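In line with agreed milestones, the collection of sequences with tokenised folds has grown. A representative record is reproduced below.
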Amino acid sequence: MGSSLPRVQPGSFLTLHYRLAGPGGDIINTFRDKPATLTLGTGELSPAVEQRLLGLEEGARVTFEIPGGEAFGERNPDMVQWVARRLLREMGDPHEQYQVGDVVQFPTPDGRGSYAGAVQQVGRDGEGEAVLFDFNHPLAGQPVTFEVHLIGVL
């Protein structure tokens, strides 16, 4: 008799615990909380991560080492940009103090989502203060450990 456990397929609805870690430690870890639920193919996980889930059986517990650049793309130097204080005031809190290492959420142009920029430097441009942001994913170009425990597959 073959195993009759459901396997992950494109579009499967999954209940799972997962942990994503970069060289600096865990980025997300649901093992201590309630499990996550998601549908494969909706972009909640990066394609490199989703590929590795396909074919796994319900109940599987696996750890994958994903090479640098595969999970979140390579670092793109064009994604490091100066933003004038004037623009920051329009987009956010005018009294915000920006410190190196802060992660700031920006609205996407359509206003529906947001993306994050990490403060690299606070400086000045011709018009006054400006802040250098890195809009790359913090794990871009980094190797990633992906640990998963598949609780349910529908």
